């Protein structure tokens, strides 16, 4: 009897021991694979000393977590000092174009360990009231970051606002400027769709796109309609070129960012002199959303809000043709100036 009990106990101990060793082996393998998911290579010298580059992935994620807490205002002064965090003026700005994919571009660039985004549109340079508050007000609106990181903000109103180029030039004449564009007619319809949704939310009625885009008196394209004017990219860009050389701009293909984001992001990394860190691992297609979503690590991923990727209303084909014909010469000029050609009709 005693012998039987001892044998049973030994059997139980053996099973428990095997389970413990198995779990330990699984954990070791899993932690190892976490590091392999996104190997960290040295960051370009511009972004700080080598010691910063050697932060292992998990430590980096921890630091990003900390940054997130600080951004929410949960940091004490002591923590900020201890971690050497600063609020830096942006080294690059996404200046437009509205409905071009500015939010997607900012969020996707934020996947890069050397980039920190300003979450809100600051509207410092286009809003006189904000601008009057001064550059320190603007800097205080920036997120906390490590000194080797770069801050990026996006305010698409900058692209079309008269005073903005000069104001940005006064802050930093060598700043890098990102412009994300889409096929101009599609962008105009997207712009209209956003305004329409706002009106519907307030139970207001609104004109049809056709009525706004075409002047009923002349039957020509209505250049007074803001959604049309914004899509004349070359007109706006020419104003910016009075202050900045074309080399300081990078044009992002917003239509390609929707269907194939990685190569577009890699071009931006190059333009910003960032080492290539965003990989296919960071971007996955979500069939329900119909868009690429973002994967920061094994536990944290997100898609853009539902307000990005609205269904556009049907627009009369003759109006679309008219608009495309109208934009054509402006597009040609835009290709010529920027050196980037698109397959727009
Ligand atoms: P639509 O709503 O017309 O589809 P912005 O951020 O400048 O307002 O641009 C909005 C546009 O970003 C959307 O226009 C959408 O097509 C585009 N976009 C690009 N990549 C996206 C993504 N991954 N998720 C959602 N929208 C994306």
TrEMBL record:
<feature type="active site" description="For sulfotransferase activity">
    <location>
        <position position="99"/>
    </location>
</feature>
<dbReference type="Pfam" id="PF00685">
    <property type="entry name" value="Sulfotransfer_1"/>
</dbReference>
<dbReference type="GO" id="GO:0008467">
    <property type="term" value="F:[heparan sulfate]-glucosamine 3-sulfotransferase activity"/>
</dbReference>
<feature type="binding site">
    <location>
        <begin position="308"/>
        <end position="312"/>
    </location>
    <ligand>
        <name>3'-phosphoadenylyl sulfate</name>
    </ligand>
</feature>
<protein>
    <recommendedName>
        <fullName>Sulfotransferase</fullName>
        <ecNumber>2.8.2.-</ecNumber>
    </recommendedName>
</protein>
<keyword id="KW-0812">Transmembrane</keyword>
<keyword id="KW-0808">Transferase</keyword>
<feature type="domain" description="Sulfotransferase">
    <location>
        <begin position="90"/>
        <end position="334"/>
    </location>
</feature>
<dbReference type="GO" id="GO:0000139">
    <property type="term" value="C:Golgi membrane"/>
</dbReference>
<keyword id="KW-0325">Glycoprotein</keyword>
<dbReference type="InterPro" id="IPR037359">
    <property type="entry name" value="NST/OST"/>
</dbReference>
<feature type="binding site">
    <location>
        <position position="292"/>
    </location>
    <ligand>
        <name>3'-phosphoadenylyl sulfate</name>
    </ligand>
</feature>
<feature type="binding site">
    <location>
        <position position="182"/>
    </location>
    <ligand>
        <name>3'-phosphoadenylyl sulfate</name>
    </ligand>
</feature>
<feature type="binding site">
    <location>
        <begin position="99"/>
        <end position="103"/>
    </location>
    <ligand>
        <name>3'-phosphoadenylyl sulfate</name>
    </ligand>
</feature>
<keyword id="KW-1015">Disulfide bond</keyword>
<dbReference type="InterPro" id="IPR000863">
    <property type="entry name" value="Sulfotransferase_dom"/>
</dbReference>
<comment type="similarity">
    <text>Belongs to the sulfotransferase 1 family.</text>
</comment>
<keyword id="KW-0333">Golgi apparatus</keyword>
<keyword id="KW-0472">Membrane</keyword>
<keyword id="KW-1133">Transmembrane helix</keyword>
<dbReference type="InterPro" id="IPR027417">
    <property type="entry name" value="P-loop_NTPase"/>
</dbReference>
<keyword id="KW-0735">Signal-anchor</keyword>
<feature type="transmembrane region" description="Helical">
    <location>
        <begin position="12"/>
        <end position="29"/>
    </location>
</feature>
<feature type="disulfide bond">
    <location>
        <begin position="293"/>
        <end position="303"/>
    </location>
</feature>
<feature type="binding site">
    <location>
        <position position="190"/>
    </location>
    <ligand>
        <name>3'-phosphoadenylyl sulfate</name>
    </ligand>
</feature>
